[in-house]
Records
---
Amino acid sequence: MKAKVYVTLKSGVLDPQGKAVEQALHALGFKEVGGVRIGKYLEIALDGGTRDEAEHRVREMCEKLLANLIIEDYRLEIVP
Amino acid sequence: MRFAVLVFPGSNCDHDCYHALKHVVGVEASFVWHKEESLAGFDGVVIPGGFSYGDYLRCGAIARFSPIMKAVEKFARAGGSVIGICNGFQILVEAGLLPGALIRNRGLKFICADVNLRVETTGTPYTAEFRKGEVLTMPIAHAEGNYTADPETLEKLKRNDQVVFRYCDASGNAGDAANPNGAMENIAGIVSEGGNVLGMMPHPDRCAEEILGNEDGLRLFKSMVNSLSESRV
């Protein structure tokens, strides 16, 4: 089993990297770009357990370490 | 009086802090490896700057789970003096010992420069020997020093007089032009509610000796040591 975890900055938290990429895209002519937010994507290989257990454990990992809930949100998917 | 200077893999200002305390201020100091679990016998703790765990994931996020941090939490919650400088500040916010977070500088760049700081309160053990409103000069060296907190936290910090230093210009104006990294309200350093835990992005350890051309940092360390000596009498 594998967990796919997406960690993103909460809306309202300044994302200077996203801003820089947005400006670069505009400079390249992609005028339709209305905003860019950069986050992290993690793939976590998991041994054993049920899908529900896995989800519960990965949620715990996110809240304890993978995301800083003061500035970040996370979402996850469990895949075979 | 004895200070613990914590050492994580990737700490790089540990020797500066040790030198400032031991050889300039003249108190006892010992390096304490992050795998240690006790702070018994220490009167204060310094979490130095650097790049603990390579800044992987988020600055300070992995270091805050090092074994020694349990002892630091206990020490801090019991009212012990803990000062986190730069990466040390990042570790303290990740550990929840100080509120808020430190995110990427708004200009994206790593900034290594002298900045002006305004002393916002003298009601802490670290600033008792400064004057309120006094302008200091200290170096910063960071890429993630942009202090961020939700509006309630900011309000609480101000209400409790927990903002210790603000970035300012040479005349003490803390406007946006004097803000090097985008920190909310120009915040450069804060203390915990009890006033015993200080986190700051500027480096007092890099301006703590005459030969370095600036002793503003030395005054901070001396203030901390003097406050601790007085409280022990």
---
Amino acid sequence: MNYKFNWALIFSGEYGRWFIDGLSVTLQLSGLSIILALFLGTLLTTMRISRVKPLVWLSVGYIEFFRNTPLVVQIFFWYFGSDPLLPEFFKEWLYRQNIEFATGVIALSTYTAAFIAEELRSGILSIPKTQLEASRATGLTFLQAMGYVILPQAFRIIIPPLISQFLNLIKNSSLAMTIGVMELTYMARQVEAHTFHGFEAFTVSTLMYLSLSLLVSLAINQYNKRCLHVRSR
Amino acid sequence: MTKMWKVALLMVVASFFLGLPGAFAGKLDDIKARGTLIAGVKDSQPPFGYVDENTKQLVGFEPELCAALAAKLGVKLELKPVTSATRIPMLEQGGIDLIAATMTHKIEREEKIDFSITYFPAAQKLLVKKDSGIKSVADLAGKKVGSAKGSTSEQNVKKAQPACDVVSFETYPEAFLAMKQGKVVAVTTDAPILLGIRNSDENPDNFAIVGEDIAAEPYGIGLPENDSDFRDFVNVTLMEMWKSGEYQKLYDKWFGEKTKFYIPLTWQMEVWP
């Protein structure tokens, strides 16, 4: 072992700024994807329990497809594989934008939505069926009953597994580096390539991911306790 | 308890002494005693180092350079494939005796290993579609450029053209695919590597290597830190090869006019009197 640790190097000059830039991209990527995944997941669950057969099939097909293929394959498919399917005039405009970041958001949110949908369904199933029947009996439509009565309760029940999904998404966002999105892991590798101090570079990125994840789960738990007044089960 | 401490201490001291002989005997003696020179080369970077389709053997410019060094020492040659990420750690741990793997001689790398004199003067260029209208780095303003991670190419191009966006992929073939699809307008790295990528395409004539030298990338042989006898041997052998014309013959075989990787020999190796 003749490895000389050099922690100061990692924070010196532009390397420190690279880490901050990377963290900021990871935050944007994860934040946007979480919001989109929540919407898409809710939509899929609503379709799944709607009893309209084609919608159910569509939702089941989607969930099984996205849950059972590796995320990195999906990312490559969205980025490289989608090319022949796009019309020529649209492509030219699209590729001048930040297509790498956009592809990352699409891949992460469509993938995570499948998991969220399944968790939300189990949350809904845990609410007595009579509640839906009672709300329908008062004259609410199916969507109104879902929106005002069922979903608010279901979301509270699934907060713990939902936190896991958020944390998974934050960690999965590191895969976006395979298509050149300059997020935290990308930057850590960049610092490693320039300084040859891999131990320090990846320790810093590990600590950043760890604190980010802990902060997210702490924040949601606090929100759950303070604002929603849910007794811990 | 105290007894255990003593035993532990003894073991630590003993391990120091066991480590010493290897550290002080020169690499040259090690190689001669072993009877083989172990060289780290690339296995997918034609024509520098790659696996031949027919013979399944590691061949190329750099393996043959290593063969010349081994012949000079009178030992056999063993080739080990390395990547850009593994080559320096492997040399440091002693798994290989030297690195001949398209490695740019950079001052930062001197912290860990030593280098021979330059044996190949690569330069960073741009690979573009022929009809793209891009002629030089100046044309890259506001456009996206592809490269591979861990390379110096992306930093260099950013310095030469601050107004471009660099997108880094895992490998150069992926960067090339992104260029073919139009997601980036150019791929940038050392010109010989660009030639290799271009020739891998079905229609190499659709693409061109253009632009001024964005940065010099002089390739040197990576050697263990602080072993000047070994370094002298490698340097002197390279210069002798240059003076005897053996180097030019080797260069012509891999980069000459009749090859797919034609790069005119326009430089002079540093030769000490």
